[in-house]
Amino acid sequence: MDGGATTGSADRPLIDRATAASGVRRLLMLGGSLMVLAALLALLGNAYGGIALLVIFGGLAMAGLAAIFATALGFVQFTGRIAEASIAKDFLDAARTGTLILDRKGRIIYANKAYGETTGATNAAGVKTLERLLARETEASEAIYHLANLARENRSGQREFRLPRSLGPGAEPTPHWYRASVRPLVTSTGTLHAWQILDITSERKHQESSFQDLQHAIDYLDRAPAGFFATDGDLKIAYLNATLADWLGVDLVEFRPFSRSILEFVPEASQALLTAPADGADALETTAIDLDLITQSGRSLPVRLLRKPVSDDVAAPGTMRTLVLNRSGDNHAASPVEVAEARFTRFFNSSPMAIAVLDRQGRAVRSNAVFRQIFGNDAANGTAAIESSILAAGRDGFHQALGAAMEGQAGVPPVDAEIEGERPRSVRFYVSPIPNSGPDADEVVILYGVDTTEQRALEDQFAKSQKMQAIGNLAGGIAHDFNNVLTIITASVDFLLLNHRTGDPSFQDLLLIKQSANRAASLVRQLLAYSRRQTMRPKMLNLTDVVADMHLLLKRVSGDHAKLERHHARDLWPVMADIGQFEQVITNLVQNARDAMPDGGTITISTRNVVAAEVAGFGYAEMTEGDYVLAEISDTGTGMPAEVAERIFEPFFTTKDIGKGTGLGLSMVYGIVKQSGGFIFVDTRPGEGTTFRIFLPRHIPAQVTASKSDTSAVTVNAKVDLSGTASILLVEDEDHVRAGNVRALKMRGYDVHEAASGIEALEVMEELDGQIELVVSDVVMPEMDGPTLLREMRKKRPELKFIFVSGYAEDAFAKNLPEGEKFGFLAKPFSLRELAVAVKNMLDE
């Protein structure tokens, strides 16, 4: 009883005006009711008034006595809201958090004992609101002001602040931390505001102590004589200590967790040791790996890694903690055998060659990182035989070499084979026997594997280039001879047409011959395009504009069954190309795409820029680094097998039916792109469509140079007078071609002299004592070619006018001439009129 009374007295609130007001209201209501009743009885003033008054008071007296006895005997109990409110009030009174409740006008309604203890109030008169109490405290005023504004807006909030001393009486003048909060309290009589304050100094001290302990632990780990790092499942570094950072040359100030991978510091040959998944019972065990790390400065750091996966639920899956032991210095604690073993293991794991020790079943007993990278985890762990990773074509040779080594035969010849995978790898194998002695008698063969994938790719690329170059030279030589033949045919037909009018019976036959010659000349031009010896007039182009201007033409070429789409990037770089030739390239590729989709489909033409850093991502070994503009023509057609795709650019190779193609279309495309300084590649699979990619080098406008004279590009006007009296020297080694050209120029009135070679031309020039005004010379001639003849003649006649005649491109011989040399050019085959126009234009310059 006494203890209970004492406790109740200790937890009594300093102020509880809400309870007092409630009791007063009940008493006033009871008294008022009795007064009203008495007044009514007095007003009645009759005989029943006194009787009624006695009856009322008698009934109340009996009810009161009955309630007293019922309560004493336990028949009546007061529960419900009164009991619940009493429990809540008792809890609030005894709470260790100081609580202050204010009404809307800021008057104090309630303050518990803890509030007085926290703020230093010992009685009701000493209780103050937090606003008044802390208004002059500089470090707390801002927080209290913020909470007061929240209270006026009926919002909740919380703030923590530090005071130089305690608010309670008699405390030492040491700093204290407090947490203050406010929240609205909705009641039946209106909204009140509940303020709370709590001394959190001990909590803060505990936090600071824990933080200091953590700092000490981190400092101990950072300054440990061994390196340490932790990685996630992607081998991103979550943490590394200062010791390891110093070894690797990493600046910890700039380092951010998960910003770098540990593989950046591991040689490529050893990376498979860290990326290999752990399986089975070994998944949670500590593993030791000896290898070399690469520092920021590029130096090698020999280390031993002790790796331990994190098995707790807090860490993310794949988290790994690794201790790093520096093996660069002399370890006097280790025995010479241990030092030698560690050194051998490092060399073994760091070797760029795949190495494995095999048992009699052809399974790996031990293997290094490169072996795991090439053959996979199953073969490296010994769960699968090595032969199972080799493609069938090289399996027999490898089996024979392995069998010979197992029988103890030395000097087994190397074997080349391909390894299965997403991208097959070419590997050259070397095997050597191990004598069966000692505890490792199950180790019978040492296998060495050298990855020759890139070497084979370069060899294949070189062989392909050599093959294409040889075919191009052959095609160019054939085209040159054909041009001479076609020039004779064309000139002869022109002479015959001069003597035959339209009504002549032979006129139509002569026209047919000329048309056939022109058609043959078109085929020759395609051969020259493939051999990159055709005449081109490059200028600065925007490929997007070129393709856009061709849209209507390409719609007709693609036909009604194919859907044509265009996708172009913005701000396309300019390129240098012959617009006519490039239009022919696009037209030819769209036509091939249409033919590859007999049942219809979609042809897509897209253009975009390709920066130098992106070039390597395409995987084309032939391409050099630089900025390019990419044009892609893709279809959704039947595609091509690999053996067909390798030959599509060869002249006269075609998959079309007889009479539906010459096999020169893609050859011409190849030659035009190559002559423009670009690259063309094809990606195709049967049933998945085909994509042609054309890469043209980016052109810088400032690099544009003045072009040479071009008499062949002058428009021929039918009314121009093509006659003249100038003295012309015609140099041509083909007798029939020379005779036809001489006859054609003499018919125009010119004084024509002829020579069959360059040396003969110099002799004729000397005999005529420099009276020649114009020289028309072939380029390719025996003894002395055209460019050499020009240089010799210019020594005595610097102003002499010159026209070169050739079936090859102008650039094929212009590079052999001095810079800025001026000359005319006429491409074979040509008509008599074209020869006359070229001569007239050059003489008029």
- The overall pLDDT average reads 77
The tally of beta strands, per DSSP, is: 28
Structural class call reads alpha+beta
Tell me the overall shape: elongated
Low-pLDDT segments, ≥5 res: 1-8, 78-82, 703-718
Tell me about the biggest sheet? Answer: 6 strands, antiparallel
The portion of residues assigned to helices is 40-55%
Radius of gyration of CA atoms, rounded to a whole number: 51 Å
Physical arrangement of strands within the biggest beta sheet: 1-3-2-6-5-4
Distance between the termini: 133 Å
Which strand-content bin applies to the residues?
15-25%
The number of helical runs is 27
For the structure shown, list the relevant keywords:
single chain; disordered N terminus; five-stranded antiparallel beta sheet; alpha+beta; six-stranded antiparallel beta sheet; 28 strands; 845 residues
Write up what this structure looks like.
The termini are far apart. Helix 2 (17-44) packs antiparallel against helix 3. A 6-stranded antiparallel sheet has the order 1-3-2-6-5-4, with helices on both faces. Strands 8-7-11-10-9 form a 5-stranded antiparallel sheet. Strands 13-12-16-15-14 form a 5-stranded antiparallel sheet, sandwiched between helices. With 845 residues, it is an alpha+beta fold. The relative contact order is 0.04. It is built from 27 helices and 28 strands. Mean pLDDT is 77; it is low at 1-8, 78-82 and 703-718. Helices cover 42% and strands 21% of the residues.
